[in-house]
Amino acid sequence: MGLDPRQAVKSKAGPRAVAVEDALRQGFAAIEQRRPNEAERIAREILVRNAQHPGACYVLGLALLSQQRPGEAIAPFEQAARARPDPAVETHLAMALRNDGKPAAAVPWFERAISRQPAFAPAFKEFAILLRSMRRYVEAERVLNRGLEVAPTMPELAMLLGGVALDRADPSSAKVAFARALANAPGHPDALLGFGIALLYEGEFARALERFRQIVARDPNHVRGRLNMAYCLIELGQWDEGVACLRATVKIDPKSAGNVVRMLIASGRGRFWLKRSAVAEFLGIPNKPET
Fold it and tell me: Percent helix, strand and coil across the chain, each rounded to 5?
């Protein structure tokens, strides 16, 4: 989930407190080790004896969220949040609401989370993801800039900021953001991809190609990197290499066939095809008969 589950609500001392805290540590470890079923079992065992234990509620919420059960995670997160203000709990509650299709309800919880001190950097990232999905780009940019003040070396924040800049058709700002991300995470494929796309927006095909080549050199199966690399090659007049790259992309991921056909048609050479089926045949892609 990208958040640190060790940011837990600490339970108050009481009977068998040491055993409970040991169990909670095991629950957090299970979350970190991607064993949410075990974490859920541990949390429920604690809650049988203490139905309002905030730490156990938090672990249960994390376990349910990890199992793609956000609707069920809301109640335990709410219980934990009522026990004590905590930005990690509030962030996860907001994530559960967001993932359960309740974005408006998630907003105030994210706002609480980013207002806490000390700051919890992942809250800014998750809030920006929500705002971006709601097309509230100016607010997302503001949240990300605040997050970068808190965590200036966190590449995910810079990459999101670059994505928001692309959403706003501002490739210049996007390049600055993606360059910042690459300074803190050299060679990161998402940052290279974003930087390359920003260069495409500006018609800088040769410079964009450099970024996409770096991605494919590190990961030959990176479909988006290959698609954009092929597009640059075709735009630069390197037709044979570009088409070979598109054909290889379809072999790697047959589901990319539609994007490959669209990309070739969008290129200058693609205008010569009158039928999509002709493009598909040229690329060696199985095509349904046209009606």
Answer: 75, 0, 25
- Residue extents of the structural domains in the chain: 117-219, 222-291
The reply to whether omega before 70 is within 30° of 0 (cis) is: no
Report pTM. 0.85
pLDDT in tens, 35-62: 999 999 999 999 999 999 999 999 999 9
Closest CA to 225 of 191, 268, 186: 191
Question: Long-range contacts for 112-116 (Cβ within 8 Å, ≥24 apart)?
Answer: 112/85, 112/87, 113/87, 113/88, 114/87, 114/143, 114/146, 114/147, 116/85, 116/86, 116/87, 116/90
Give the domain 117-219 fold: 1.25.40
**Contact between residue 238 and residue 231 where contact means Cβ atoms under 8 Å apart:** no
